[in-house]
Amino acid sequence: MNGVQKEYANFVKISKEIAYVQSAISVLEWDMETQMPPSASDARAQVIAHISQNILQKMMSKEYTYSLQALKEAIDYAELPNGQAGNVLQAITQYERMRAIPADLVLDITKTCASAHHVWVRAKATNDFNIFAPTLTRIVELVRARGRILNPVHPYDACIQDFEPGMTSIEIEKIFTPLRVSLSDLVRRIQSSKIKINAHTHKFGATQDWQHQFCQKVATAIGFNFSRGRLDESAHPFSTRIHPDDLRITKTTNPNNVWEAVYSTIHEVGHAKYRSGLSTENFGLPAGSIFSSALDESQARLWEVMIGQGKPFSEFITKFAHSAWFKKTNHEFYQSINAVCPGLRRLDADEVTYNLHIILRFQIERELIEGRLEVKDIRDAWHELMREYLELDVLNDAYGVLQDVHWSAGLFGYFPSYTLGNIYAAEQYSKIQKDIPDCDSLIFQGIFTHIDDWLQQNIWQYGSMYDASDIVTWAIGKKPNAAMFIQYLEKKYGELYEL
Ligand SMILES: [Zn+2]
Q1: Which residues make up the environment of ion ligand 1, defined by Cβ < 5 Å?
Q2: CA of 420 to the centre of ligand 1 (A)
Q3: pTM for the complete prediction?
């Protein structure tokens, strides 16, 4: 082994050590959300904070710094094979971003956001943005300061790149602007259609035990392997990043609507499949990791919405459920699950209006972090945009500017990932259907392995060795944009509402 390969082996060793600690933290966090008694929360927070320090120390260690510097030189002299160079370059980007932020600023952000949560909960419960405004002002100051260190011209881009390496706000705007125009138009046409669809027809209640068993059956049917995974209950559904061979997902059960648990399960199975397809050999390296929230989200939305709420799956699932208890026809189910109902809450939004909620948040947080809008004015900005995009009047703060937890946690730049995820999902689904002409009839028969094979081949195997938009570009054969997503929505909802 030459000197460069020895250095690469050292880089791999440290990267894996960091990943083992992260994996342990993921188990602790999963336990915290699913099993832990409530009184243990302070003790658990201390344990996680202590172990997290270990990751920071390893990432900032002289050994790791030296290793990355030596490998960067080796890349400059073309002494590292392409695959290895890809891993190192992505690791350097992560390392430099972390290294650039002063430790006291990181601590200030962590502490401010930790105490902000309670203030946000109180403000939302009492429906009063003024309670939260001073805390949010402080968070915005700190996020702006952090952003300006990483990108003095466009601090919001620094926020976006926490979740989407390589993505910029200008790039997102180019994708979102035509999408917004088309969506507002589509919503208006749907509302004036003579076809009215009841969004509640398909809903049905059942006990928690019954729902759990049914969700396990659905997860198994679409390819979730319970010898490598678990399905549990939590307040908000999530999936862990422990290891490709240890996949834990959760769902949330509504006693009055079985489909909430079913579709949260399908969404999380989508995330889990992506994790299961990562290379175990590259565990801990960028090639075995997920950096892009949009690509991650695209895997979940592909299963939950594009496949899960499509016609062939509706036929499959109604047949599947019929044997148990479901009395609706597949057409009634398909119509009802896809009803479009413009509303004030993002979390209740349907497939068409959901992205307008996201674009509204993107506009506001971009102006806010770039210093063109102040916290005191965001309520007015929210009301104005909600009127413009969805023709709705915001009734109160809890149904407006206070509805999402993200900003109280300092999460700016995350919202665009939801819509980018939908766009990536539509692009992938369209290409899957082109590459596999009998895709729909296989779904109807309850066969899904062809989709997994395509995703493994085109998406999962790369992990995060390249930027997500490049991986999607190679997978679909062109640069992703909103056109395919708009086309998909026009076709589906044009048929449903006879537009
Ligand atoms: Zn998700």
Answers
A1: 300
A2: 12
A3: 0.94
